[in-house]
Amino acid sequence: MDTAVKKERYHLLDSIRGLLLIMMIVYHTMFDVTVMGDGRFSVLNTAGYIFQQSIGWGFIFLSGMCRAIGKKHLSRGLIVLGAAAIVSFVTYTFTPGMGINFGVLALIGSSMLIMIPLEKIIKDKYAPVGLLISLILFILFRNVYLGNLGFEGLVFMDLPDFLYQNYLTAYLGFPPKGFVSGDYYPLIPWFFLYLCGYFFWKIFGNKEWLKNPLVIKVPVLSFLGRHSLIVYLLHQPICYAAVFLFCVIL
User: Fold this and answer.
1) Is 141 exposed, middle or buried (0-12, 13-18, 19+ CB in 10 A)?
2) Cα–Cα distance for residue pair 238/85, rounded to 1 Å
3) Are the C-beta atoms of residues 159 and 149 closer than 8 Å to each other?
């Protein structure tokens, strides 16, 4: 008799990831229209910024939650980093002015690997403290890429120029002058948001009010969420080609 218990899949998390993917596809299509269109439409405004940020925040927080649930972290982290390298190569080859350095895939892959040793010293009973500290650090370092400690329009203090030197410091969150990336999510501050998701699950993951709805399955969204990496890799060239065809050739 097989006494093994099959681990229940939280389909709603897949569905949320699928919804975020659709939002990302919409945003990237709108962005391509902004770049290649005739100027009548632009996503580079406040509404577009809020929409774009909501997608990034959602992906990173959700990835942190899933890190607390999942397994095979080393292999998955390396796969995601490999995908990030492919994205960088392709974008630099075909859109040199908008090549991606340290995008969201690089952040998530790096975070997965960093958590392997870090998780060994993190105690679940301190998860509430961890969530609070991670949230404070995220707010404090949100604007570090701009040269200051601050959150969006708030500036707490300026940071010294010597921190912003090269691609290594850019990976950490301190880009040098002239650094350009079509998608930029460095370790600081975004690893702290990843930790927020991780600690959130450690605190509330066993609560029935959270677990019960998570078994709900939205078929199309759940399918997209389960295959999020391949969809992410394919959607941008397809969107770019489609917009190029309609805005430039036709």
Assistant:
1) buried
2) 19
3) yes
Q: How far apart are CA 60 and CA 104, in angstroms?
A: 8
pLDDT tens string, the chain, 250 residues long: the values are 344 444 568 999 999 999 999 999 999 888 888 878 766 677 778 888 999 999 999 999 999 999 999 889 999 999 999 999 999 998 888 777 778 999 999 999 999 999 999 999 998 899 999 999 999 999 999 999 999 999 998 999 999 999 999 999 999 999 999 999 989 999 999 999 999 999 999 999 988 888 889 888 899 999 999 999 999 999 888 888 888 888 766 5
d(CA 192, CA 206): 22
For residues 29 and 239, the answer to whether their CB atoms sit within 8 Å is yes
